Amino acid sequence: MAVSEMEIGKWSVVAGGVVAARGFQVAGVRCGIKRKRRDICLLVCEDGEATAAGVFTTNVVRAPCVDWSESRLAAKGTAKAIVVNAGNANAGNGYPGEHDNTQMAQWAANALRVPVDLILTASTGVIGTPLPMAIIASGITDAADHLGNSPEAATEAAEAILTTDTFTKEYAVRFPLPESGAVVTVGGMSKGSGMIAPNMATMLGFITTDVAMASDALRSALVAATAVSFNCLTVDGDTSTNDSCFLLASGAAGNVAIGDTDSADYQAFADALTHVCIHLAKEIARDGEGATKLVTVRVTGTATTEDARKVAKTIAESPLVKTALFGNDPNWGRILAAAGRAGVRFDPKKATAYLAGTCIFAHGTPTKFDAPAVSKAMAVKELTIHVDLGTGDAEARFYTCDFSYDYVRINAEYHT
Amino acid sequence: MAVSEMEIGKWSVVAGGVVAARGFQVAGVRCGIKRKRRDICLLVCEDGEATAAGVFTTNVVRAPCVDWSESRLAAKGTAKAIVVNAGNANAGNGYPGEHDNTQMAQWAANALRVPVDLILTASTGVIGTPLPMAIIASGITDAADHLGNSPEAATEAAEAILTTDTFTKEYAVRFPLPESGAVVTVGGMSKGSGMIAPNMATMLGFITTDVAMASDALRSALVAATAVSFNCLTVDGDTSTNDSCFLLASGAAGNVAIGDTDSADYQAFADALTHVCIHLAKEIARDGEGATKLVTVRVTGTATTEDARKVAKTIAESPLVKTALFGNDPNWGRILAAAGRAGVRFDPKKATAYLAGTCIFAHGTPTKFDAPAVSKAMAVKELTIHVDLGTGDAEARFYTCDFSYDYVRINAEYHT
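Structure tokens for the assembled complex are given below, as produced in the milestone run.
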């Protein structure tokens, strides 16, 4: 992300990522879990506790950090800080793993002099290997000594949460609330790159804002935003044991706390949060393992949003569609066949499909499109597949990447 | 398949594939749709009509042959013959495609001098290209002139239904019915190799038997057999516009027609049919595009068969599991994580996983297995992943293959 300010529609894009919003400090340090990169991140609310919400993996195989953070948030709805380590997911480690996670939270609580129940945890990396607790202890102390709110601190933190990602993922926007007039910032960082695997992925998102908002409203906004962003993201269809997305609100913007989810201020905040989450999710797809391009699958013309989502997801996850995207093959047959097996009834004779802007299928049959020209239009870093099923007004988008030789190499050559 | 007889449990494996059962003739000829291989198959019941059943793709994008054959079977439950072409799926061709399919059936009906409603059709190959009707007409005439019931004729027919498959898939077994004592044969042929795609796949199965059986009972047996065979098969999760499996019964075994699905004779037939279908389905997975090994995913210890099926399917379709299999990586984390996202609740602490016979996960954590030894045990043509969830008595199996560089090459380098 460029760090200069620019206007995108109703929002100004600003520098500072996860500390662009007022009231937060962050540090990203290296304790030695990873070979070269920073691997411990501490994100802290400066004054008192932040209102906090989280969404977590639906996988029944869950790491202790997921259980810990979800139950803390359910009990309190506020948090002082999040401690994150990268390089070791602390998953599949049985009861000792649960103990280590609590110990990690306790060390962060000690460093910040707050009760342990105010600390959230996140881990990502190798599964089934015990956390190297001694270096994590010194890493947490080190991070607490280096907290700051500069854009550099934010980028160091964004590096400290990565695993096989090839670049950091940060974004922030600023906008005035339409009713109260207070200027609010929403920003964050994410990591992804592949999926669950013994030395890799997990999707993590950390969003901060200075808006003042009631706990329930904050949670509603996060659930809605993740439903159309991180939950519409697929690199290979595998959810992780550790997937988590957190939202902390400091209240430093000074507005009267928003509680009414029907208010214009709530809607403006929810829109900005959704925009930030979609941006951070797309960055994950762009950085998918072996990815050569970011692909948006847009499905329109269904009876319900859920129908559109199912069809978009099935297309976005199809290995045949993804290998065709890698090969710049305008393969309408694979797209339609994937749509057809999504579990949604439709009449192929009413379906239309567009690839990189060209109509390739209409009225139950392929159009006479210029295949070499469409193939050339596909040889880009970012493109859209649009399928309209012609049966309603609902729509949805999914974000994915192509399937390359490198995907197979990365995932076949690595050994547990 | 070896053509020699051998005993497998209660069945004798016999030569002759789709004409091993008495009462059928078949031909496989080349009319020129494919560059080199035979591409027209005609399978005929010798005397009168066969009792017939079929199961068809659940994809809402269906080729005209699927609609034609399904509605003929629903109306009559009998058939004289099946005409098959390979190299062109006649899908995505709009109304002209429907006309061409009917014309193909009519030509077969003319050659056999029977009403067109007694002819079933199947097509596989390129989507969105009109059928080359002139050569198909001559191909059907040619096939009708070369009908026979030798093992050679069966193998020629098994070749004539292939697309990108690298070998023919035939199998047949013979056994006595326990009650009536009549000796019955069940045999058939299949093709698959990949999935739907503009120049490839589609799963097709053609099974014949000489048993005499009521139409409803025959259909029940086929639905049950496909549920645990062809419907438990995944190469890449993509169903086709043309997937079909047919079962024709000539009645030439001379038994009193089986109508009672609770009878021992019915059960013996259903068991043999299931055995044949599983064999033919496994051959498809073994010949999956780019496959280097056939993998059986066995899931036990669930509350219901449906739960076991869901978990087995999710593991069998996971690109991460499939690339690990290609790389001979004993990656228990990917297997467990795939199980965890299948939509079935279970306690990971009760789960156990075995890879190529070695226990790699138990009590919520990996075992201290010898990774190089397990990796070596994975470097074979055929292996099993067994996951036990420890919560019930139900189980299911899925058949799949690994994901290799060649899978990406075959599917990315081909251009529509």
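Residues 140 and 378 of chain B are 46 Å apart (CA to CA). The first helix of chain B runs from residue 64 to 76. Further analysis is deferred to the final report.
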